[in-house]
């Protein structure tokens, strides 16, 4: 059969695996490849080719190669966990930036000390250089395997979601077998640069109604030098962690009496007020008028805006005079009410209204993180009311203001996403009869 790679063609016998094909082009190519593409489709190096094809090889140091390494390292960790804690149930273990995680259902909760044991066991498995072998089963046989042999209800649920009649792929490495599409490294010996870094809680399928599992995070790279460089960056970043600096500089603190609700100290208020003064100055230059809207509003308003039906679980509520109220999770309904409370002439447009509004949104305890993920924060909102022929100029003005703050004043890189009016728009905005642009930025 004729195989074409990188502009070069060579003849091979039929039924040759990708490793041998890579070796046929060069030994170094075979040595550094952790996967391949056959006619654009990703395959393992053990994949047997039986027809003429154009192929590519995935270098271990390439971004795609490192993702394969990270995926395989997740399997490596799961194997180590089961060797040490055989009654643990494994669930899913995807690749993430700079590493991976795997969610487990352990008999007893893992500790930081357990991470050291797991990592040591992973290194033992690497030295064993176990081959990773792919095989497939019919969907019903896969369900039977996980239900009767592996006794893993989580995997059963995953496979049951696969359509009838489809094949289900598995990877086996020694005493460990896992449900997986691949692609994976040829053997565990390729996995030499990893570090387990943290434990966290995670609901199965991300649903708070399901069981809380335990997630183990890890870093993984194609070589030790990359791992060391990344760990050094992490170490430097920890020195500049805003939670650490906030405490050392006496800027803010968080209390167990109000998880997710920051306390700003006098020095923190100095910094905050400087930012607010800058915000006011720049918005005045751009022709904005400042608003302040109530922090708590009647349930009916949130029903009109759609928040009550689409965001209710993340809102804090209270009852006043037997009427249900909600603390605002967004400033928009209040901003629209402020404009709507009196009649306007087209000569009043565009009307640029801005607010530094305190909003509250419920977050799970496990998701809270310093000032980056909180339950109360000040959101910089602007609402611009205009006629259709003013839309283009106003959007350009908003973009210029955003760029001035983020790029020119603070030197940040940023991305802009455009939100358009949905087809099922609510009667609240429809009754206004004007176009509206909303921009949101937030701090503390």
TrEMBL record:
Residues 270-444 form the Aminoacyl-transfer RNA synthetases class-II family profile domain. The keyword Zinc applies. Transmembrane segments: none annotated. InterPro entries: aa-tRNA-synt_IIb, aa-tRNA-synth_II, aa-tRNA-synth_II/BPL/LPL, Beta-grasp_dom_sf, TGS, TGS-like, Thr-tRNA-ligase_IIa, Thr/Ala-tRNA-synth_IIc_edit. SMART domains: tRNA_SAD (SM00863). CDD domains: TGS_ThrRS. GO terms for cellular component: cytoplasm. It catalyses: tRNA(Thr) + L-threonine + ATP = L-threonyl-tRNA(Thr) + AMP + diphosphate + H(+). GO terms for biological process: threonyl-tRNA aminoacylation. GO terms for molecular function: ATP binding; metal ion binding; threonine-tRNA ligase activity; tRNA binding. Its EC number is 6.1.1.3. Keywords: Aminoacyl-tRNA synthetase, ATP-binding, Coiled coil, Cytoplasm, Ligase, Metal-binding, Nucleotide-binding, Protein biosynthesis, RNA-binding, tRNA-binding, Zinc. Residues 1-59 form the TGS domain. It comes from the Bacteria. Belongs to the class-II aminoacyl-tRNA synthetase family. This is Threonine--tRNA ligase. It comes from Fusobacterium animalis 4_8.
């Amino acid at each position: 059969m004729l195989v074409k790679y990188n502009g070069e063609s060579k003849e091979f016998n039929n039924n040759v695996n990708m490793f041998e094909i890579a070796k046929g082009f060069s030994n170094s190519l075979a040595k550094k490849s952790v996967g391949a593409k056959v006619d654009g489709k990703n395959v393992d190096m053990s994949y047997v080719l039986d027809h003429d094809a154009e192929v590519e090889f995935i270098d271990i140091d390439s971004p795609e190669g490192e993702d394969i390494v990270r995926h395989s390292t997740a399997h490596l960790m799961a194997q180590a966990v089961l060797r040490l804690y055989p009654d643990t149930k494994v669930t899913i273990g995807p690749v993430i930036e700079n590493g991976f995680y795997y969610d487990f259902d352990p008999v007893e909760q893992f500790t930081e000390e357990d991470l050291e044991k797991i990592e040591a066991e992973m290194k033992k498995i690497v030295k064993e250089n176990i081959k990773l072998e792919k095989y497939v089963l019919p969907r019903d046989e896969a369900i039977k395997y996980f239900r009767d042999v592996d006794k893993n209800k989580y995997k059963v649920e995953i496979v049951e979601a696969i359509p009838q009649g489809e094949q289900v792929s598995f990877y086996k490495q020694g005493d460990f077998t896992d449900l997986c599409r691949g692609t994976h490294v040829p053997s565990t010996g390729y996995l030499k640069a990893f570090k387990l870094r943290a434990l966290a809680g995670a609901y199965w399928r991300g649903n708070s109604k399901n069981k809380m599992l335990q997630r183990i995070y890890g870093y993984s790279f194609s070589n030790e030098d990359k791992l060391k460089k990344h760990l050094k960056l992490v170490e430097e970043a920890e020195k500049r962690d805003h939670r650490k600096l906030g405490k050392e500089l006496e800027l803010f603190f968080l209390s167990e009496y109000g998880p997710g609700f920051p306390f700003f100290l006098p020095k923190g208020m100095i910094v905050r007020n400087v930012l607010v003064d800058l915000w006011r100055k720049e918005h005045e230059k751009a022709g904005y008028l400042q608003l302040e809207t109530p922090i708590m509003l009647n349930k009916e308003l949130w029903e009109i805006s759609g928040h009550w039906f689409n965001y209710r679980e993340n809102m804090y509520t209270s009852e006043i005079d037997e009427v249900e109220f909600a603390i605002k999770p967004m400033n928009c309904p209040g901003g629209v009410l402020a404009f709507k409370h009196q009649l306007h002439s087209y000569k009043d447009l565009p009307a640029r209204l801005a607010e530094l509004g305190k909003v509250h949104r419920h977050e799970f305890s496990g998701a809270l993180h310093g000032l980056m993920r909180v339950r109360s924060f000040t959101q910089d909102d602007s609402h611009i009311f205009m006629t259709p022929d003013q839309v283009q100029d106003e959007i350009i003005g908003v973009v210029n203001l955003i760029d001035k703050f983020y790029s020119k004043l603070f030197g940040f890189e940023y991305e802009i996403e455009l939100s358009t009016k949905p087809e099922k728009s609510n009667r609240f905005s429809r009754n206004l009869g004007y176009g509206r642009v909303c921009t949101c930025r937030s701090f503390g």
